[in-house]
Amino acid sequence: MSDFKKIVLAYSGGLDTSIILKWLQTTYGAEVVTFTADLGQGEELEPARKKAEMMGCREIYVEDLRETFVKDYVFPMMRANALYEGVYLLGTSIARPLIAKRQIEIAHETGADAVCHGATGKGNDQVRFELGYAALDPKIKIIAPWRDWEFKSRTDLIEFARLNQIPVTKDKEGEAPFSVDANLLHSSSEGKILEDPAVAPPNIVYQRTISPMDAPDVPTEIAIDFKAGDGVALNGEAMSPATLLTALNKLGHDNGIGRLDLVENRFVGMKSRGVYETPGGTIYHAAHRAMESLTLDRGAAHLKDELMPRYAELIYNGFWFSPERVMLQAAIDQSQADVEGRVTLTLYKGNVIVTGRSSPRSLYQEKIVTFEDDAGAYDQKDAAGFIRLNALRLRILADRG
């Protein structure tokens, strides 16, 4: 145990990671470096700094990584139209590799010999963090308190906090009603009052969206511009990745967009029920697919759709830094060169409705698809041979009886 001289802790400043901080200090006698990332969770992070200072930490990192998060993680994932199990936009999954990467960098900067995360022993995040650590520094030592310490319940944690003068906020005096994780892409709620999948989530669960029933009776019209597969402007105003997603989150919130109640298959083997809110991401996903519908060749589009479930599963399972994810990303990014133009959408009571798309790189040719005289652009007689050849094997099967 005394081998650990310095540990970099992924630190939120909340009850669990504050207890972990003290536990590391008392269990290992090691210096702890705290790292708090602003990924757009919507909370003031300075209290985390002050709490770490109060608990004796000398090296404290509090960093605004919102632009990096959206530009280098969310947008590449969105180029793939990634959905885990067909519906989940991977809001928690995509944040973990960035946190792991920065933790390892800080470990190298400070001379730390270990990193620590606060993920529980039942969830996916422990896998995501530790696969990231392994890919970036296979020699780093990893501490996972939830798999090692003696605490069995939240009551045990609160008692430890009191014994060690760790501030406990009033709403943590009992069992928390549910667990929340949030960043600029989404919020995730799990556990306790959400554990029975037959029971509808109470309204207090929703933090990023108003109810679709309470959304305005007047539709909201917007336009998103794309360049090389990434969103670059909203309603004609150029925006950075994080600024664009922030603006879309506000529009999604106000129109009740992006709610998902999901029973999913965790990588560790169990099913879990989660309630997700991805307001801006839901709008962006619909717009990106609409832009691709105009600019991607059929073969490329269909191949992307075949690759997407595998790509999404890699991210969900924590393999962002794996060679196969990098390889798939190269293919996906290659497909995006001509995904350029404008998509117009109507937002209305939980719905995202694509109303138009235009592009200087469009493959849509009205002279070919028109029901009017196409002036020889397409010879309809060619369809007879095309159909005859495609039907050949069907006729042979039918003849066999």
Care to give the gist of this entry?
With about 400 residues, this protein is of the alpha/beta class.
Key descriptive features of the protein:
single chain, 401 residues, alpha/beta, Rossmann fold, Argininosuccinate synthetase, chain A, domain 2, 3 domains, 5-stranded parallel beta sheet, 5-stranded antiparallel beta sheet, 14 strands
Structural class: alpha/beta
CATH evolutionary superfamily of the largest domain: HUPs
**Strand and helix order:** EHEHEHHEHEHHEEEEEHEEHHHEEHH
Helix content: 40-55%
Rg over CA atoms: 25 Å
CATH class categorisation of the largest domain: Alpha Beta
- Identify the strand order in the major beta sheet: 3-2-1-4-5
Describe this structure in words.
The chain has 401 residues and is α/β, with parallel strands linked by helices. It folds into 3 domains: 156 residues, HUPs (Rossmann fold, 3-Layer(aba) Sandwich), CATH 3.40.50; 138 residues, Argininosuccinate synthetase, chain A, domain 2; 32 residues, no CATH class. The protein has 13 helices and 14 strands. The strands form 3 sheets. Strands 3-2-1-4-5 form a 5-stranded parallel β-sheet, sandwiched between helices. Strand 9 and strand 10 form a beta hairpin. Helix 3 crosses helix 8, helix 8 crosses helix 9 and helix 10 packs antiparallel against helix 11. The N and C termini lie far apart (74 Å).
Question: Topology, pairings included?
Answer:
Elements: E1 6-10, H1 15-28, E2 31-38, H2 46-54, E3 60-64, H3 66-79, H4 96-110, E4 114-116, H5 125-136, E5 141-143, H6 145-148, H7 154-163, E6 179-182, E7 187-190, E8 220-227, E9 230-234, E10 237-238, H8 241-254, E11 259-265, E12 271-277, H9 279-295, H10 298-317, H11 323-335, E13 341-348, E14 351-358, H12 366-369, H13 382-400
Parallel strand pairs: 1-2, 1-4, 2-3, 4-5
Antiparallel strand pairs: 6-7, 7-12, 8-9, 8-13, 9-10, 11-12, 13-14
Helix pairs in contact: 1-7, 3-8, 4-5, 8-9, 10-11
